[in-house]
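User: Hi! I have a protein structure encoded as tokens and I'd like to know what sequence might fold into it. I'm fairly new to this, so please keep things simple.
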């Protein structure tokens, strides 16, 4: 029916747009966004330094904030909605959680840290540096929860995806991970597990959405079930070779 109404060209354009920018379903936005972010950051790094790429992408991230979590904050959000974001929405499905405004900053930040990895090693000179970084990370998580709570209570935006608190949180997690030695086997397992969690969680959300009403409880249930399913799948794939080809 869709084919009969809109025609082959429109369907092909819609499919290409979904694959390249939005994801086939909303929850699958991550991979196309990551690929697009990496592509944009590689191009930017050819003309300006990693530091200025971070500055530029941070400005882009500010636009993302006012197009998502803080989209109801006037008059800045209204101005951006009528100007820059108006054209942005011609490419993306009315969200700034994408590979341009949202993802580029985190890719550029990781690249900047990689360029200064020797400086990151100096963290190891501090006494109990792991404990100190973990403490700050916990504080950032609390700040994130507080930001989400305020945004939800006061209806600051149409959705809650792009946050201020995730900037220091992501940076600290990156620094911590860089200074912690992990066996290759363990790192590969974590990578597989994270990929499976990403693939499985949309289906668990759909199954649980009518069974669990409270949003906090739903989050805990979906997360727990998703991790268990992903863990079981990895365990079975070590014994059943054909399962490895699925992920």
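Assistant: Happy to help. Inverse folding works backwards from shape to sequence: for each of the 247 positions I chose a residue that suits the local structure. Here it is:
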């Amino acid at each position: 029916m869709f084919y009969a109404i809109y025609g082959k060209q429109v369907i092909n354009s819609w499919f290409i747009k979904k694959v390249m920018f939005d994801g086939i379903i909303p929850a699958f936005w991550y991979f196309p966004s990551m690929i697009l972010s990496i592509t944009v950051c590689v191009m930017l790094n050819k003309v300006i330094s990693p530091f200025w790429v971070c500055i530029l992408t941070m400005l882009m991230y500010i636009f993302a904030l006012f197009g998502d979590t803080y989209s109801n904050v006037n008059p800045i959000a209204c101005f951006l909605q009528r100007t820059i974001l108006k054209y942005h929405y011609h490419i993306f499905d009315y969200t700034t959680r994408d590979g341009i405004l949202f993802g580029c900053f985190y890719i550029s930040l990781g690249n900047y840290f990689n360029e200064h990895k020797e400086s990151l090693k100096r963290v190891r000179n501090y006494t109990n540096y792991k404990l100190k970084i973990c403490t700050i990370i916990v504080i950032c998580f609390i700040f994130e929860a507080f930001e989400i709570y305020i945004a939800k209570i006061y209806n600051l935006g149409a959705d809650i995806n792009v946050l201020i608190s995730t900037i220091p949180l992501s940076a600290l997690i990156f620094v911590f991970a860089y200074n912690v030695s992990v066996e290759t086997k363990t790192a590969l397992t974590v990578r597989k597990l994270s990929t499976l969690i990403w693939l499985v969680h949309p289906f668990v959300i759909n199954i649980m959405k009518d069974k669990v009403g409270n949003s906090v409880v739903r989050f805990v249930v979906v997360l727990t079930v998703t991790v268990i399913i992903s863990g079981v799948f990895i365990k079975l794939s070590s014994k059943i070779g054909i399962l490895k080809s699925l992920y």
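A useful reference point when you look it over: Confidence is low (pLDDT under 50) at residues 1-11. Feel free to ask if any position seems puzzling.
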